[in-house]
Specification:
The chain is of the alpha+beta class. It is built from 15 helices and 20 strands. The strands form three sheets. It has a nine-stranded antiparallel β-sheet with strand order 6-8-9-10-20-16-15-12-13. Strand 3 and strand 4 form a beta hairpin. The two termini are about 20 Å apart. The relative contact order is 0.10.
Length: about 550
């Protein structure tokens, strides 16, 4: 029966892992595709197009930035420039984040369109009237007033066609990642026109992505309360289009997001497509009449951000962007993952170290489930003490399985033992384990955060290895041989904990479970160090509680 208990626990663990992999993904994409088919959207001539062939020469980023006049922008969080050719935001660098741990190079997200990894944001007006000249990607805008965009100084860009219609862009910047854009069209003629506002994000190629099933990287939107996530590969095969009254759209990386919030309370169509480049686009579905000698104005926003939880949540609340917090991929266990991050962040602000915060959260979890664990440990302790009696019953009824089963059930009832109670701590631990894994993997707050000693990044694996004697031998082992100090400590703690539990009566099973700590040590070696630290200390606190409980136990058997 003890072996059945262990087997049941492992089976439950496997079931949770399978369910996790199945449900960590967003709602099935088949639903979205059905919607696309029902609406039967076709690309309108109103939609700003992407050239089917690149006729421009690919150049270096430095050369591309020199090709056109630019308006620089800067605040506490970002620095970059806007090209006056096309009034395109195509140069943006995060001031607070380095490319690699120990590197001084800052993370650059946006690049000019004629750079290999071009990534740009633009907006404006379109019309069905083919006789009207409108600003496009080749238009040279003029700047009036402030020559640099900061959080205190907006800029104004202007352009006028030969038909008497002037266009203005008034762009302002907050102190973090938000661009507010006012698009104006000023008609000085006696004719009326119908204009549609648009905004689009264009990316030349698929970036380097993590490739993990627990994280979405690609097209992202929330349209009328529906979360939509589309992979690059899917969009290469089939365009996505859908209308909505509210929401946002964009392209999401692991730690960064480029997003557009269309004008409020106005219907718009969102399109994700690929025509030699990837594009996330919106266009208003109802035109705005630009009457004779009149002016129209549309307001939209770009959030080009590092996915800091406080910044994303603030924008979601202050700008009333429905579900914008889902720009961070919290997963289907949102209700556990996000509160867990808040708990970690609380203790980080208290201790100044996310490793200590993980330990503090581990203690809180142990305290929260203290009564449940106590019940389980008491039952497991009784099972261990009952082992001699159970062995006697097996010998006594070795030829009659029915009587053996009846005798063991009578023993369990007499001693008030539940052989399945050992599963409870495992069931509690697994959701927390996966939630912490998710937090460590997707939150930028954990990126490049050190613990103590050799752990310089809690979101990355322990860099030491048993196979070069933890750095004493001048040799860099291959990735599969990097088994660090913390995974080994975790394995040792698990082995000691295993000794406190009843051993399976079957010798074969006992040998299998003996190697289980070694197996998990190898499996968890590539996992984030913060996760392994959590598991190690969880094992330690579990053992302390288990030892205390079992020492207080007395049991009489006949």
């Amino acid at each position: 029966m003890e072996s059945k208990n262990v087997i049941a626990a492992i089976s439950l663990s496997a079931a949770v892992i399978i369910l996790y992999s199945l449900f960590f993904a967003p709602p099935p994409k088949e639903i979205n595709k059905d919607q696309i088919q029902k609406e039967k959207f076709t690309e309108s001539s109103d939609t700003p197009s992407i050239e089917k062939n690149d006729n421009f020469k690919k150049v270096s980023r430095e050369d591309a930035l020199k090709e056109n006049d630019r308006v620089k922008f800067e605040n506490d969080s970002i620095i970059g420039s806007i090209s006056l050719k096309g009034a395109t935001i195509d140069d943006l660098t995060f001031k607070e984040y380095n490319v690699d741990l120990g590197s001084k190079e800052k993370v650059t997200l946006l690049n000019p369109r004629n750079v290999e990894n071009g990534y740009t944001v633009e907006s404006g007006f379109v019309t069905n009237n083919k006789n009207i000249d409108l600003p496009n990607a080749s238009t040279i805008w003029q700047i009036k007033g402030n020559k640099k965009l900061t959080n205190n100084n907006p800029i104004k860009l202007t352009w006028k066609n030969s038909q008497g219609i002037a266009f203005e862009k008034i762009i302002s910047l907050d102190d973090q990642f938000l661009f507010n854009v006012k698009e104006r069209a000023i008609n000085s003629t006696n004719k009326a026109y119908n204009f549609y506002s648009y905004g689009q994000i264009i990316r030349n190629k698929i970036p380097e992505i993590s490739g993990f099933y627990i994280l979405h990287e690609g097209f992202l939107s929330v349209l009328d309360d529906q979360l939509i996530e589309e992979d690059y590969d899917d969009i290469q095969e089939k365009k996505f289009s859908q209308t909505a009254k509210e929401g946002f759209l964009g392209i999401s990386d692991k730690f960064w997001i480029t997003s557009i919030i269309p004008p409020r309370n106005k219907d718009f169509k969102t399109t994700f497509d690929y025509k030699n480049k990837f594009r996330a686009n919106y266009i208003s579905t109802k035109g705005v009449e630009l009457g004779a000698n009149s002016t129209i104005e549309e307001n939209l926003q770009f959030i080009i951000a590092a996915k800091r939880v406080d910044a994303i949540d603030t924008y979601a609340e202050n700008l009333n962007i429905n579900k914008f917090d889902l720009a961070i991929d919290w997963g289907f266990m949102y209700f556990i993952t996000k509160p867990l991050f808040y708990a970690l962040d609380y203790f980080f602000k208290m201790f100044g170290n996310y490793g200590l915060a993980i330990i503090a959260v581990t203690i809180c979890i142990r305290l929260a489930f203290f009564p449940l664990a106590n019940f389980s440990f008491k039952s497991m302790g009784k099972m261990k003490l009952l082992a001699p009696e159970m062995a006697r019953l097996k010998e006594l009824h070795k030829d009659d399985k029915m009587k053996l089963q009846q005798a063991m059930m009578a023993l369990y009832k007499k001693e008030k033992v539940n052989p399945m109670s050992g599963c409870l701590p495992i069931l509690v631990q697994i959701p927390v384990f996966f939630a912490l894994y998710k937090v460590l993997f997707v939150t930028i707050e954990m990126r490049h955060m050190p613990f103590y000693g050799w752990i310089h990044d809690l979101s990355d694996r322990d860099p030491t290895s048993l196979f070069n004697l933890f750095g004493l031998i001048p040799w860099d082992p291959p990735s599969f041989l990097i088994i660090g100090v913390w995974p080994i400590l975790m394995g040792v703690s698990m082995w000691i904990q295993q000794k406190l539990n009843p051993a399976p009566p079957d010798p074969v099973q006992a040998k299998i479970f003996m190697f289980f700590p070694l197996f998990l040590t190898v499996i968890l070696a590539p996992f984030p160090a913060g996760l392994v630290i959590y598991w190690t200390f969880n094992n330690i606190f579990t053992m302390l509680q288990q030892v205390i409980v079992q020492r207080k136990m007395t049991i009489k058997t006949t």
